[in-house]
Amino acid sequence: MKKLTALFMAGIMVLGMTACGQGGTSGNGAPDSPVEKETDSPAVEESVETAQADGTDGGGKSAILIVNGNLGDLGFFDSANAGMQKAKNELGIDIQVIETGDDESKWEPALADAAEEDADYIIAVSPSMVEPMQNIAPLYPEKKFFMLDNTVDYEGGDYSNVYCATFKQNEGSFLAGVVAAILAKDTGKLGFVGGMDIPPINDFLVGYIEGALEVNPDVKVVATYPGDYYDPAKGKEHGIVMCNQGVEVMFAAAGPTGLGVIEAATDADKYIVGVDSDQSAGYAANGDENTANHIATSMMKNVGDAIFRAIDLDLKGELELGTSESLGIAEGGVGLAKNDVYNGLLTDEEKKMVEDIEAKVVAGEIKVSTAIGMTTEDLDKLRNSVAP
């Protein structure tokens, strides 16, 4: 696994990408009073020092991003970090990015520590940060909290200082399924690796299956779940099994575990669809052109853009706190990485097919189903309908 280890280390230097790091919910309870910051025993490590951009005026405002994992995932978290860097460079915002690792016991203390800092915006970007956000945000009504990729229960408490944005990953994954089905010209067999068998991950799967069916009504989809978001070795094992089953194109929605699936696909000379960021560009930036060229496209979840957009709107006085937005293809929240690899693999006719289907989704002519709220019976019916 030397290649994976090297990739993780190199990936920390990449600031333009993102990860689907969706894990379990923190079990920490809400403190009775605002938590005081313990400077002698910090809960987390700061990965980016506070920095003021030159030549821009953000009104002296500052923002702290809590990464409940680590940068270098070439996906979700790197995308969020890129959004912070953009806010620094273009809006003049002072920023901190704090990595907690995957230790759930650190997530809520990290959010509490951040709230104690002299910062205007406290940002969390993972579904697993909902409970910490609900516990901490009401204690600091003067602060503005952003929750990306999930939403607090607005009816269950006073979260008037919290703005939430979710992403229609089912719509982006629909396009991923279209591309995968186009590329699977021999067996028509596709693969999906999800971190866990839960609705947010199956939302990717549902869109992926329906998009593939739009191109090939006889498509087959193998779906597996390693049960972990932080284990590339386990992801590679699942990827190898899929390759041995004759899968032509894979799609992994599994955070850093998905990096192992990418390696398996590359080793087997198969194509894979990246997730959350342009993962091909991430590998290319690390000098791994071979892997980059096996990532046909990526289903972009534009977390960083959503962070930048929220800060920018707030500076203009146009952000409505206490509300949640859902960002799909039309809003620029999700989409495909139409990079050089994508353009080289698909013919002009195939690219037009993708564009036409994308336009139909935006226009509402194609309704993409979602796993959020879908019954287990309906989900199983869909999975079984395309099982080999």
General description of the model:
By secondary structure, the protein is of the alpha/beta class. The chain has 2 domains: 12-167 and 304-327, Rossmann fold, CATH 3.40.50.2300; 170-276 and 347-385, Rossmann fold (3-Layer(aba) Sandwich). Helices cover 40% and strands 17% of the residues. The chain is built from 14 helices and 13 strands. The protein has helices at residues 2-11, 76-91, 107-116, 130-136, 169-183, 199-215, 232-244, 257-267, 279-285, 289-292, 303-315, 340-345, 348-363, 376-385, and strands at residues 45-48, 62-67, 94-99, 121-124, 144-148, 162-167, 189-194, 220-224, 249-253, 271-276, 295-301, 324-327, 334-336. Strands 1-3-2-4-5-6-12 form a 7-stranded mixed β-sheet, sandwiched between helices. Strands 8-7-9-10-11-13 form a 6-stranded mixed β-sheet, sandwiched between helices. Helix 2 packs parallel to helix 11, helix 5 runs antiparallel to helix 13 (348-363) and helix 7 runs parallel beside helix 8 (257-267). The longest helix is centred in the middle third of the chain and has 17 residues, at 199-215.
Features:
388 residues, alpha/beta, six-stranded mixed β-sheet, globular, 2 domains
The first-level CATH class of the largest domain is given as Alpha Beta
CATH architecture of the largest domain: 3-Layer(aba) Sandwich
- Cα distance, first to last residue? 30 Å
CATH topology of the largest domain: Rossmann fold
| Main sheet: strands, sense, barrel | 7 strands, mixed
**The CATH homologous superfamily of the largest domain:** Response regulator
List unreliable stretches of 5+ residues. 1-56
Rg value: 20 Å
Provide the succession of SSEs.
HEEHEHEHEEHEHEHEHEHHEHEEHHH
What share of the residues does DSSP label as strand, in percent? 15-25%
Shape: globular
Structural class designation: alpha/beta
Number of helices: 14
Strand order of the largest sheet: 1-3-2-4-5-6-12
Averaged pLDDT: 87
Return the domain count.
2
How many β-strand stretches? Answer: 13
